[in-house]
Design brief:
Keywords: Hydrolase. One of its GO terms (molecular function) is N-acetylmuramoyl-L-alanine amidase activity. It comes from Romboutsia hominis. With 278 residues, the chain is α/β, with parallel strands linked by helices. The protein folds into two domains: 1-71; 80-274, Aminopeptidase. 52% of the residues lie in helices and 17% in strands. It contains seven helices and eight strands; from the N terminus they run αβββαβαββαβαβαα. The strands form two sheets. It has a six-stranded mixed β-sheet with strand order 4-1-5-8-6-7, with helices on both faces. The protein has a two-stranded antiparallel sheet with strand order 2-3. Helix 4 packs across helix 7. The longest helix is centred in the first third of the chain and has 70 residues, at 2-71. The termini are far apart.
């Protein structure tokens, strides 16, 4: 009899132990599931937070970039009196607005046009950006967006700021052909012997050759209205032929634009150094 009781007691203990083990197992599983769920929630929240931080940082960088690009070149904020700087340089993106300038086509069968006014603005902004890194130079763009601006207004702006140099950035085109290529710089025709426009043209033309591979078409004097109306050394830089596919593709390339702009800017800086007011 005593033996049977012991067997029963052992059986009850085993049953209770199994029940307790099952409860513990269920409890552990529940805890594990809760942990997994919690970790997933935290990971999702962290990922979202990181994404938001990256997006906010990207927006801030873009905003700062826009501020830096515009703060030097906002013409509406410019004074009507000469600006305080050792040198003042006016960069003139040719054409603009209703005046598209020369027109090229990206490739045969492509209906998307390439406008001189757009390339002129892109390159002009890059030239101005390089010059603005110099603490003693005030850079003024005659236009910062796609707007119509007549020749007289460009000259009046440069004259009113008593600028040390005026550089108009333009693109060339061949009439009735598509093989002409190269870069050339024009200076004022029939100028006073003391005029240094030819020196400015030669310095820019020679410096560009060190930065880009291009055909050197030299410097030429020509009666161009905006050059005749300005009082300081003034030139027109023809950056290439958009009627020529190979050259047009170069001018559309951001890396090429950067090198070309650097060459133009360094030519301007070299000219200013040689003719410093001191």
């Amino acid at each position: 009899m005593s033996k049977r009781r012991n067997i029963r007691k052992q059986s009850v203990r085993k049953t209770k132990t199994r029940r307790i083990n099952k409860k513990k197992l269920i409890f552990v599983i529940c805890i594990f599931i809760a942990l997994i769920f919690g970790i997933s929630k935290v990971a999702a929240s962290t990922s979202k937070l990181i994404g938001n931080i990256k997006e906010a940082k990207s927006q801030e960088i873009q905003k700062q970039k826009e501020i830096e690009e515009n703060k030097q070149f906002d013409l509406e904020s410019e004074s009507s009196t000469p600006l305080e700087a050792k040198h003042t340089v006016v960069i003139d993106p040719g054409h603009g607005g209703d005046d598209t300038g020369n027109v090229g086509i990206k490739s045969p069968g492509d209906n998307e046009a390439v406008y001189e006014k757009d390339l002129a603005l892109d390159i002009s902004k890059k030239v101005a950006a390089v010059l603005s890194n110099q603490n003693d130079i005030q850079v003024i763009l005659t236009r910062t967006d796609d707007k119509t601006l007549n020749t007289s207004d460009r000259a009046i702006l440069a004259n009113s700021q008593n600028a040390d140099a005026f550089i108009s950035i333009q693109m060339n085109a061949e009439t009735g052909g598509n093989t002409a290529n190269g870069v050339e710089t024009y200076y004022r025709q029939d100028a006073d012997p003391s005029d240094k426009s030819k020196q400015l043209a030669e310095t820019i033309q020679n410096t560009m050759k060190a930065y880009v591979t291009m055909k050197d078409r030299g410097v030429k004097q020509q009666h161009i209205q905006v050059l005749q109306q300005t009082y300081m050394p003034s030139v027109v830089v023809e950056c290439g032929f958009i009627s020529n596919k190979e050259e047009r593709d170069k001018l559309l390339d951001n890396t090429y634009q950067n090198r070309l702009s650097e060459g133009i800017a360094q030519g301007i800086l070299s000219f200013l150094d040689k003719n410093s007011k001191k």
